[in-house]
Write a structure and sequence with these properties.
By secondary structure, the protein is α+β, with helices and mostly antiparallel strands. It is elongated, with a radius of gyration of 41 Å. The protein contains 12 helices and 10 strands. Helices cover 41% and strands 21% of the residues. The strands form 2 sheets. Strands 1, 4, 5, 6, 7, 8, 9 and 10 form an 8-stranded mixed beta sheet that branches. Strands 2-3 form a two-stranded antiparallel ribbon. The two termini are 73 Å apart. The structure holds phenylalanine. The site of phenylalanine (PHE) has 11 residues, from strand 9 and strand 10. GO terms for molecular function: ATP binding; magnesium ion binding; phenylalanine-tRNA ligase activity; tRNA binding. Its cofactor is Mg(2+). It is found in: Cytoplasm. Its main location: cytoplasm. It catalyses: tRNA(Phe) + L-phenylalanine + ATP = L-phenylalanyl-tRNA(Phe) + AMP + diphosphate + H(+).
Length: 341
Amino acid sequence: LKQKYLGLIADASNEARIEDLRVQALGKKGEISLQMRELGKMSPEQRQTAGPALNALKDEINSALIAKKTALGDAALDARLRSEWLDVTLPIRHRPQGTLHPISQVTEEVTAIFADMGFAVAEGPQVESDWYNFDALNIPGHHPARAEMDTFYMKRAAGDDRAPAVLRTHTSPVQIRSLEAQGAPMRIICPGRVYRADYDQTHTPMFNQVEGLAIDRDVSMANLKWVLEEFFSAYFDADVKTRFRASHFPFTEPSAEVDIQCTWVDGQLKVGEGDGWLEVLGSGMVHPKVLEAAKVDPTQWQGFAFGMGIDRIAMLKYGIPDLRAFFDSDLRWLRHYGFSA
Ligand code: PHE
């Protein structure tokens, strides 16, 4: 019996087989257990020799089972360690890492600067009704601004006789949507894509604007000037002066175009120095008709709005001469300007 089991245990190749053998030999109905039960029927003399012999056998088989089980476990662990082993010194396969597009980077930068001044971010749809894009902003149907903006019109389905939807030509419709949704007071910026049918070195049919809107009981052009100078100084990391020139937008009164101070040094544009001026945005005090369209009482509330080209201020900061390059997805270009690894 001893030889039989020791042989079987030695041959066992996995832990399940060991368990089988344990049951076969030492289980309730195991071969050795049954023999132990026979002891009761034996004479005292027989028992005196058979008893200790059987106990010794039982212990020996038990130890052999445990030893083998441990050995099998160790072997399994070794095998796993071997198969899961990694050589951390091997060279890795190079995987080029992407980065945020420069426009996204600049948008984040702009958003962070205005956030420090208490402006929240608002968004609106890029496919816009002509009411939000024009009428609510005091640009009626016959107004020349509609033609000036080179609007892309969307085709309505046959039988739908509403005025055609448009690709928003500016971020100003978000002023209306935000005021409608939340009312005054309000302090927001609205970054996003806008569309105009135009294409040359400084114009692409899709470009990016950021709108600013601050509505409260007592907001003035002076607040606007302070906010913009704070913004440009933070963005260009220089002390940037602004110049306001009287202008006209249907949705602001008075209106101003804003220039930032700059100069050219060795063919490089330097913002915040010299006596040159560069136009960067349109702005003004929100027209009472615009507040009315957005269900805000113009006798109680007033405020300023501005809209500036994100791509344009990105070009200025990074010295990029051609706007179109932003949208060419040319990796060499992105790398050249340090926008990609
Ligand atoms: N919406 C104007 C444009 O796109 C910019 C602007 C915004 C002007 C807000 C005044 C106030 O040109």
